[in-house]
Q: What sequence folds into this?
């Protein structure tokens, strides 16, 4: 089997501590994105099971598969789930879901669940879009921004690069941090150009003569992604000219949130440390969908 | 009334108009163009409308401009608008000026005229400068058409255009109702059709349309939105918003309400009367004094039309829009009007724009008590 360098590994888990049979309401959320799908099952508001799989083009089947995986081995069946909600770009394809919610509200809700109520800025870095979300202190979305001209900040960018380089997506971030100082970023105008430029760095005489390290090349690429994401966060505060305000707690969700080469650079540039959670950041959308439905 | 059909058949319409009247067709880009003067010369003024199709020819002439400017150039270079005898550019967007130069250089037989309309609309000399520019334009038109532009012809043109604007304003007033009988998409189609038709004929169509509207049942209670931003070329964004439970009840677009908001107040000095209308109309973002005039106009519309939120859709690479974003955002924030700003392409990318609008409507909906209970409220 060919190794998929550009994909985060599929995973799933069910809680052994929660007795799902005693739950008053079991709610499932499924987040069907462009490159992967996640499911979260909550028993009376507590995370019981979850799963992440690679998305196929049959989105309804993908949604069924990921929900089945999230309850695998627990004895729970689909009929036991009280309500199923869908989010993600293919949410309308999930016909068996009784509710659908937009991704912005799901990630906001999921982030508050995962990182705590002090979170005010959520940055979801998914396969296709980057969403910066500003929350009020109370439970409501105040403002949000999406990438519109360019996909340099998206997860698809790094997936393609890792596949081309045969570089494991789980390692590229930490490798990029082995540099003492970040080099200039590659093109931030277009992710296709960014990828080409990064590949081109491996052909440079500086690389062959070891004046340019592999870590520096990865740093150049990931700095370009972080650069784009910072721009989107900055647009959330249009009145604070010349200043990027993160208004308190910052939280990252989505696949790119697992890449320290990107998150560390964003934190460094913004001068803030992002909130931490034990829950995988890819699950935020699915958790949010489940919570919003009840 | 099938306004979409009128827009789709605009080329055939203008060609038949020429055959019928023997007159000339004059194309314009900017809603600052004083159509009344051209109309008084027996000319049919038509707005050049961009469409979405592969760009075969404009890339080598124009690079980095917004898509509509490139498309309009492309359409001309492909020969789709050979029935247009002349082109006028009014001081404003520099991308449009670029298109105007490329088109007229490639088609040297066309009548061309650059009409200077001061960016400093409120300076002491602006009205006199514009009047002298309009007189030059009038003379050029007379030479080109061979028709003398008499005071009687000007008065007739002003009457027709004032009537047209009044009818559009009457239809716009119907959108102030709690449950408007006309949706934003139909309204935008009507405005676009209005910009490519002979206004005397269009006035008849609008009068019949008003009768039709007055007999309609009230529409649904939807989230009331204002659309702000660059000029638009179709009603696809309005349609998408409607599919998600919103309705654009008012706009502040250059080719929307700003096109017809003010009438000409007749005076003996006809050129001064025309000039004052164009200097005083709702401002394009690039014009001076926006910090005072444009936000105030937006605020008045927001209040009059009871909006729940605003969508600011800027065309990608549109340079005039964006110059006064700061003032518009500030105004909306100060008035606690929720808004979403984004840069749109010539077409509306479905998935991405759907997500934006859906999320924005959910954000707005959470704060609207009148909609509680039967709309799906999303509170995080």
A:
């Amino acid at each position: 089997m060919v190794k998929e360098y550009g994909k985060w590994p599929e995973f799933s888990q069910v809680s052994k501590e929660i007795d799902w049979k005693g739950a008053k309401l079991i709610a499932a959320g499924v987040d069907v994105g462009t490159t992967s799908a996640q499911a979260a099952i909550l028993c009376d508001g507590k995370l019981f099971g979850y799963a992440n799989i690679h998305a196929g083009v049959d989105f309804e089947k993908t949604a069924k598969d990921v929900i089945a995986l999230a309850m695998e081995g627990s004895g729970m069946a689909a009929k036991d789930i009280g309500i199923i909600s869908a989010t993600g770009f293919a949410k309308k394809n999930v016909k068996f879901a009784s509710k659908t919610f937009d991704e912005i509200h799901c990630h906001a809700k999921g982030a508050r669940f995962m990182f705590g109520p002090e979170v005010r800025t959520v940055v979801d870095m998914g396969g296709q879009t980057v969403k910066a979300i500003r929350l009020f202190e109370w439970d409501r979305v105040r403002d949000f921004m999406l990438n519109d001209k360019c996909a340099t900040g998206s997860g698809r960018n790094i997936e393609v690069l890792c596949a081309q380089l045969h570089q494991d997506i789980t390692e590229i971030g930490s490798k990029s941090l082995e540099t003492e100082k970040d080099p200039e970023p590659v093109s931030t105008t277009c992710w296709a150009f960014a990828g080409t430029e990064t590949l081109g760095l491996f052909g440079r005489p500086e690389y062959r003569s070891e004046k340019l390290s592999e870590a520096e090349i990865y740093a150049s690429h990931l700095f370009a992604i972080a650069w784009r994401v910072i721009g989107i966060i900055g647009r959330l505060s249009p009145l604070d000219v010349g200043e990027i305000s993160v208004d308190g707690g910052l939280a990252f969700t989505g696949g790119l949130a697992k890449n320290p080469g990107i998150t560390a650079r964003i934190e460094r540039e913004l001068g803030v440390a992002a909130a931490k959670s034990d829950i995988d950041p890819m699950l935020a959308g699915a958790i949010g969908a489940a919570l919003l439905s009840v | 009334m099938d306004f979409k059909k009128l827009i789709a058949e605009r080329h055939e319409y203008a060609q038949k108009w020429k055959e019928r009247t023997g007159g000339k067709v004059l194309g314009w880009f900017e809603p600052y163009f004083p159509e009344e003067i051209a109309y008084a010369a027996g000319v049919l003024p038509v707005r050049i409308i961009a469409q979405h199709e592969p760009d075969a020819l404009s890339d080598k002439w124009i690079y980095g401009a917004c898509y509509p400017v490139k498309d309009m150039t492309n359409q001309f270079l492909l020969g789709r608008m050979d029935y247009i005898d002349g082109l006028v550019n009014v001081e404003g967007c520099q991308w449009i000026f670029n298109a105007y130069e490329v088109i007229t250089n490639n088609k040297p037989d066309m009548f061309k005229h650059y009409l200077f309309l001061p960016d400093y609309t409120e300076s002491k000399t602006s009205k006199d400068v514009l009047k002298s520019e309009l007189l030059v334009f009038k003379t050029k038109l007379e030479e080109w058409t061979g028709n003398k532009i008499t005071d009687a012809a000007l008065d007739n043109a002003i009457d027709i255009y004032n009537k047209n604007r009044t009818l559009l304003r009457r239809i716009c007033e119907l959108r102030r109702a709690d449950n408007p009988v006309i949706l934003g998409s139909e309204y935008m189609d009507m405005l676009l059709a209005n910009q490519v038709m002979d206004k005397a004929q269009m006035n008849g169509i609008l009068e019949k349309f008003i009768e039709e509207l007055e007999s309609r049942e009230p529409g649904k209670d939807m989230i009331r939105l204002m659309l702000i931003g660059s000029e638009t070329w179709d009603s696809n964004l309005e349609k998408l918003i409607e599919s998600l439970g919103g309705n654009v009840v008012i706009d502040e677009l250059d080719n929307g309400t700003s096109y017809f908001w003010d009438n000409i107040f007749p005076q003996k000095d006809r050129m001064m009367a025309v000039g004052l209308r164009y200097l005083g109309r709702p401002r394009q973002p690039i014009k001076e004094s926006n910090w005072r005039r444009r936000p105030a106009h937006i605020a008045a519309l927001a209040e009059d039309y009871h909006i729940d939120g605003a969508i600011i859709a800027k065309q990608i690479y549109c340079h005039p829009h964006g110059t006064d974003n700061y003032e518009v955002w500030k105004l909306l924030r100060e008035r606690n009007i929720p808004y979403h700003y984004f840069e749109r392409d010539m077409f509306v990318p479905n998935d991405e724009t759907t997500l934006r609008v859906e999320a924005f409507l959910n954000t707005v909906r959470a704060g609207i008590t009148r909609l509680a209970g039967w709309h799906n409220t999303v509170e995080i």
